[in-house]
Amino acid sequence: MSQSEQARPAGAAIPDKTYEPQRFEPAWAQWWIDNGIFDIPAGGEMFSLVIPPPNVTGSLHMGHMLEHTEIDVTIRWHRMLGHATLWLPGTDHAGIATQMVVERELAKEGQTRHDLGRDAFEQRVWQWKEQSGGTIKKQMVRLGASCDWSRERFTLDPGLSRAVREVFVRLYEKGLIYRGAYMVNWCPRCHTALSDLEVDRTETDGHLWHIRYPIVGSDQFLTVATTRPETMLGDTAVAINAADERYLHLHGGNVLLPVMNREIPIICDDLADPEFGTGVVKVTPAHDPNDFEAGRRHNLPQIRVIDNDAKMTAETGRFAGLDRYEARKQVLEALEAGGYLEKTEEYRLSAGACQRCKTTVEPLVSTQWFARMKPLAEPAIAAVADGRIRFIPENWTKTYNEWMYNIRDWCVSRQLWWGHRIPAWHCADCGGVTVSREDPSACQACGSAAIAQDTDVLDTWFSSGLWPFSTLGWPDQTPDLARFYPTSLLITGFDILFFWVARMVMLGMECMGDVPFRQVYIHGLVRDADKQKMSKTKGNVIDPLVVTEKYGTDAVRMTLLQGAAPGTDIVLTEERMAAARAFANKIWNAARFLMMNMETSGVEPWIPEGPIGKPEGDAMEDRWIFSRFHRTAESMNRAIANFRYHEAAQLAWGFVWHEFCDWYVELKKLRFSAGSGLNADWRNILALFEGSLRLLHPVMPFLTEELWQRLAVNSPGRPRSIAQARFPQPDPQGIDEAAEKDMDLLQEIVTAARNLRAELKIDPKDQLSATLYSEGRALTVAREQSAAIARFAGLDLALRPGHAPTMAGAMRATPDFELVLAVSDTQLAALKQRLEKEIAQLEKTITNSERQLGDEKFIGRAPDHIVAGMREKLGEYRAQVDKSRQVLAGLA
RNA sequence: GGGCGCGUAGCUCAGUUGGUUAGAGCGCCUGCUUCACACGCAGGAGGUCACAGGUUCGAGUCCUGUCGCGCCCACCA
């Protein structure tokens, strides 16, 4: 017997009194894996999904847990439908993010990556990766993720790196990757270029400075407005609009750049908007994307005035070496001193910040590698347009299209050390570039051996863009690739729709000639009780490990799913988790109760073989619960298929608690008897309970496995795990409308009686006589269920056809029946007394309220809400006293 | 500047193509240690479905507008 076999609970033992998920969840998590429960069968309908690989930057947060729970529900459901189901797990090296984390670690030791050198630093990051990747795997296992760990992948695995290299070379050969000096977003802290997506726009308060540029050969000047005066040092023109008659005569002339004392031309360009500011704009081709374009249109020189550290370059003369913000100050002082500063306005401006380190990015011209996107976007647009890929919720299609239609080239090179090294070699002799699948030994162009590999690495999303096929063995034609690509479904967050989803579609179409997935379900964000996004900096994160330890994994999963309505965010609170734990506890105790009764009845743990159809025998409660079971199964299958997880969770919850436990088990209590053995009652109960566990299994895998194993212990033909059992499918044969109607009547009779008793404040222990009048089916139901009515409603019921002779006080009327309680003299007296006392007290309160509300001083001085509140209360007292008087009158 | 979404019970949210009396969980009130469960049982209060129009036999659900809130995209100094 293996260690994990031993870790299983002891057979059929009746569950302990308290539900303590911590005692069995970790054991089952490990047992599933050790026993190959998630192994994929050789044949059958295929269902595949690749995980959105978490970054190896640390551990998993609630967003991951939500995502993994949704994935796991879908995966377990498909597995239980008998499909060959693959959930491929893995992690992303997350270039810039991980490098930053490790650099921070180094900083604590007073070191930089440069102190270590590239190789040693990479080793260091690998160490970190091993640790973080291990933590992530451990967490996923603990959360019950039913993935196939034998297929676990990492974006820097040799196989995946080969795929990256293959794609890079292919795209390069097709002219879809090029290298050149263009305007990029540069992070002066991370020291790397960034793609547009990696720049967050944030609005800040700033200024708009109006600067006078003297016109050469005149005593006039042109006033330009800028938010970044320090860049003027690199101006190589000023622009006016060709349609702007105010300045048109100046076209072709020059202005003298203040401070720098350089003559620069006045050009006509649409860059200048006559409506904005003065209608004249300075042109700094080296430091602004628009100016860069304008500069190319007019062949303007680019003067680099800010370097990679965001310090001023030698080009700026006396400002050289200054930080960009210090330079701004000093440039402004110089302008002021020279009388060039016309005015300063308050201005709201948006600046780009590095997504990772929040440093303000510097737009500058830099030689980088770019991927041409338009040709890749076209097939990606078509794939969605013609329905080969479907977004759920559908409106994400629009967002996707919007981005695809306006796509711009993608800067794929990063000046980092952690990532896939760009497979390009530069020749020291001829300057030629050799891009190759195999490491070259000589320059392709001139044959020189003096070549060195490009020092840049690729954007981390380049490799994750290949994830759906690189993980399956591509570029080799592996059996997995043939079997599982295209994948069936992707479940991910909208925050990486462009970063990842869009790129997977483009690269999948390009490399595989087919879509990477057929459906994309976009889930919401996990928020805290104040609807705030969870973030480490805000300190409002709920740690999955902490709450799963506290409430149990099943309860947290249930809570997440209950909130997971498509298109909405998930508000996660501890109250909800506590409620979900109560639900788990309820099931636990139902199982405990059943097993205790099985013992006294002499019933061995047992689960039926084959699907659930109709009940044995013709007891109403059996026919009813089977019917409700099939309807629930039908709805749940549909809900999960349509990603309506909240609905699936609610259906399971409502059925198990409010139908199975509240009514069915209560009704069955009337039929338990010692030594009865495995009779029809038990076979029906156990079939339904076991079926309910299967319904619930995708949502609450641990609890259901734990209880199922206890029930299934002596059933030889069973699967090893409930995870391998079939998910319940509705059987029309089991639908019984007559039983449902009868049950409705029984519930109405019982509820009416309970309601009356509560209203008349009759002691729950008092058994009452009552008469039920009806012209229909209610009499039959009441006769057949008289034992249940006696127990649930405390009524000894007499049955009469027709209607009640008088409208007595203790009566409840429905369209189907009238129920009249016989209240005995002593009860009546007690009731009268209680009512009279209540009325007297109420009248006293009412008198006091009326006196106070009649006092003008009080009305005048007391705050309005107090007065209003008191008036409202008075109304309530009056209504209550009226009701009590009526009841009293009815009883008299 | 474009695009998307939200505003339903005290709180957090469901309510898929418009259809009989708008639901859940929590919270609140009342009563119950009923032999599985007080992480429980039973009963109850609480909603002009943001506002104003419109379409319809019928609107929380569709249309228009207003107000409030959030998110995404965008090269205007």
How is this structure best described in words?
The chain has 892 residues and is of the alpha/beta class. The chain is 44% helix and 17% strand. It contains 28 helices and 29 strands. It has a four-stranded antiparallel sheet with strand order 6-5-14-16. It has a four-stranded mixed sheet with strand order 10-11-9-12, covered by helices on one side. A four-stranded mixed sheet has the order 27-26-29-28. α19 crosses α23 (737-759). The radius of gyration is 37 Å and the shape is globular. The chain binds one RNA strand of 77 nucleotides through β8, β12, α8, α11 and α18.
Helix fraction by DSSP (H/I, runs of at least 4): 40-55%
Biggest β-sheet: count, sense, barrel?
4 strands, antiparallel
Strand content: 15-25%
How many DSSP E strands? 29
Bulk shape: globular
Secondary structure category: alpha/beta
Spans of at least 5 consecutive residues with low confidence? 1-7
**Cross-sheet strand order for the largest sheet:** 6-5-14-16
Q: Provide a count of the helices.
A: 28
End-to-end Cα distance: 75 Å
Radius of gyration: 37 Å
Mean pLDDT: 88
